[in-house]
Design goal:
Layout (H helix, E strand, L loop, with lengths): L1 E4 L7 E7 L4 E8 L4 E5 L2 E5 L4 E3 L1 H12 L3 E6 L8 E2 L1 H8 L3 E4 L2 H12 L14 E3 L4 E4 L2 E7 L8 E5 L2 E5 L19 H12 L6 E4 L13 E3 H7 L8 H12 L8 H8 L30
Parallel strand pairs: 4-7, 7-9, 9-10, 14-15
Antiparallel strand pairs: 1-2, 2-3, 3-4, 5-6, 5-8, 11-12, 12-13, 13-14, 15-16
Length: about 300
């Protein structure tokens, strides 16, 4: 399922692609004046029961880029995802465009390097990406300026990309009828997540917010676009809440949530820039699952 959004002359065109297995949304954001674009949070398909990988979801982005005659300038991840594999490495190999992520990904690499006992098998300097973005950094998508907000709380390394009137807010804010992200992953913090959301909500009320997941409450169709004004007015985790209220609510809710089923699978791929582990002597690739590594994890 995909949908294209553009509301005014000169605003970026945003195409969202819903991936139903992990409830993720991939984005292609383009400058209509130049035909240049960025891909944000692409998904590499993974079937955990069979161990099979596929590029079906990422190939849908490539087909859209080809059909619209776009030139990809960036392949961006908002954070190291815990519920799906990133296709950034695959798309980089196909397109040659540079990859980027938040600079604090190195903190996540060091944390998970220890959990997976990877030793020197994983570089923790972020060199798996072409650019590490710090808070306030800017970049270009055609004639459009992009800028980076550091948005930790869900993870240590989460960033928000603001491109024109569109902000890609990953797993901070969901749709107003669902709420906000969890903050109980290793390195997560509900107070920092609240602070990150306040910076996003300080953007102009008309700013379009594009979320990273939609879980379709009450069985509605998938949605992924809101505005700052809609979030402030209608999101029950924000409207009428104080920082202290939010932390209490978030900690209480997170205590009852199971860990994402792919967290141990996906992080070892995503801290490598969306690349699978190197083949072993038999030519096959293997994932490594640490047992009893996530303290306090729920059986769910």
């Amino acid at each position: 399922m995909s949908q294209i959004s553009r509301i005014s002359e000169g605003a970026p065109v945003v195409a969202g692609f819903f991936e139903p297995r992990t409830f993720s949304i991939q984005y292609v954001v383009s400058d209509p004046a130049t035909g240049r674009c960025a891909i944000i949070d692409p998904v590499l398909d993974f079937e955990e029961k069979s161990g099979a990988t596929s590029t079906h979801s990422a190939d849908a982005l490539l087909e859209y880029v080809r059909r619209e005659e776009l030139e990809v300038e960036w392949i961006l991840d908002t954070h190291p995802h815990a519920d799906h594999f990133s296709a950034a490495g695959y798309l980089h190999d196909k397109l040659g465009a540079p990859t980027g992520i938040g600079a604090h990904v190195t903190d996540v690499q060091r944390l998970w390097q220890k959990l997976y006992n990877l030793g020197d098998g994983l570089g923790t300097d972020g060199s798996q990406w072409d650019r590490l973005f710090a808070a306030g950094d800017t970049f270009r998508v055609g004639n459009l300026e992009g800028r980076v907000l550091f948005s930790p709380g869900h993870t240590l390394a989460s960033v928000t990309y603001v491109i024109g009137d569109a902000a890609f807010v990953h797993d901070t804010l969901f749709m107003p009828d669902f709420g906000t992200a969890r903050a109980d992953f290793p390195g997560g913090d509900a107070g920092r997540l609240w602070d990150s959301m306040q910076e996003i909500l300080a953007l102009p009320d008309s700013t379009r917010l594009f979320t990273g997941h939609d879980y379709m409450p009450d069985g509605r169709e998938p949605l992924w676009e809101s505005t700052v004004a809609e979030q402030k007015a209608n999101n029950p985790h924000i409207a009428g809440m104080t920082r202290e209220d939010y932390i209490r609510m978030r900690d209480r809710r997170d205590a009852d949530l199971p860990m994402p089923k792919l967290i141990l699978h996906s992080l070892q791929v995503n801290i490598r820039g969306g690349r699978l582990p190197e083949p072993e002597s038999n030519g096959k690739r293997y994932l490594k699952l640490p047992l009893d590594a996530l303290e306090g994890a729920s059986w769910g």
